[in-house]
């Protein structure tokens, strides 16, 4: 009985968070990415064909011309400084109103794109073990997370944000339809009514994160944002159990365990404990 209050205190201070995370990670997966979410990968093959990274802005302008029928477009690339061919990309963004660009929040400062278009921050918080399991919905004033802003562009409806943090419900990795970026420049691909996310997948660009379903192998950040969009569409973010209910359950199970063990043979009690 004396151990109950100690255990309750340990729960309040997240002492068992690492063990809990390892257990709950096994509950993810078993689902596929939605067919209407497509990833355009800035991969090694695209860099070999198009040229050394970072690319000129007119490369993205050319790609946007092929995506004008998409439901919404999210570009997970930093356009924080002026560069050559900015004007071509600016005109492309003006002609396609459903594009969302990447912003970042660093030490309380918002770094946003130089272009006058919609944007959302791409920050993904890491848990103590370096794994991404959630997204902060209120990281910076009225600015939305990247995925939330893309959802609003796609359906012209602001997603509900009644929580500070949303816990991502991850499908199986590598299940979203993916094209290499260069394919858009060379082929006529139908993206009608699709949500298209453009982001780095090349290992050297280092935009990768560990997630519960990645089995220790990091996945591209653009895929994490695709997962968040899917959660918004399906309204299936994970809900964290309240600490009060956890404490009540611990006390009930502890009391039952004490009752059972006190009536068992000492040999079996030791083995069970």
Number of helical elements: 10
Largest sheet: 7 strands, mixed
Residue-averaged pLDDT: 91
Kindly state the percentage of residues in helix: 25-40%
Tally of DSSP β-strands: 11
Tell me what portion of residues adopts beta-strand conformation.
15-25%
Shape: elongated
Radius of gyration: 23 Å
* Secondary-structure-derived class: alpha/beta
State the low-pLDDT regions, or none: none
Order of helix and strand elements from N to C terminus: HHEHHEHEEEEHEEHEEEHHH
Separation, N- and C-terminal Cα atoms: 15 Å
Name some characteristics of this structure:
273 residues, alpha/beta, 11 strands, 37% helix
Helices and strands, with pairings:
Layout lengths: L2 H10 L4 H8 L12 E6 L1 H7 L6 H9 L6 E5 L9 H10 L3 E8 L2 E3 L6 E4 L12 E3 L9 H10 L9 E3 L9 E4 H6 L8 E6 L7 E2 L9 E2 H14 L8 H19 L4 H7 L1
Parallel strand pairs: 1-8, 1-9, 2-3, 2-9, 3-5
Antiparallel strand pairs: 3-4, 6-7, 10-11
Description:
The structure is a single chain. With 273 residues, this protein is an alpha/beta fold. It is 37% helix and 17% strand. It is built from ten helices and eleven strands. It has helices spanning 3-12, 17-24, 44-50, 57-65, 86-95, 146-155, 181-186, 221-234, 243-261, 266-272; strands at 37-42, 72-76, 99-106, 109-111, 118-121, 134-136, 165-167, 177-180, 195-200, 208-209, 219-220. Strands 1, 2, 3, 4, 5, 8 and 9 form a seven-stranded mixed sheet that branches. The longest helix has 19 residues, at 243-261. It is elongated, with a radius of gyration of 23 Å. 34% of the residues are buried. The model has no long low-confidence stretch (mean pLDDT 91).
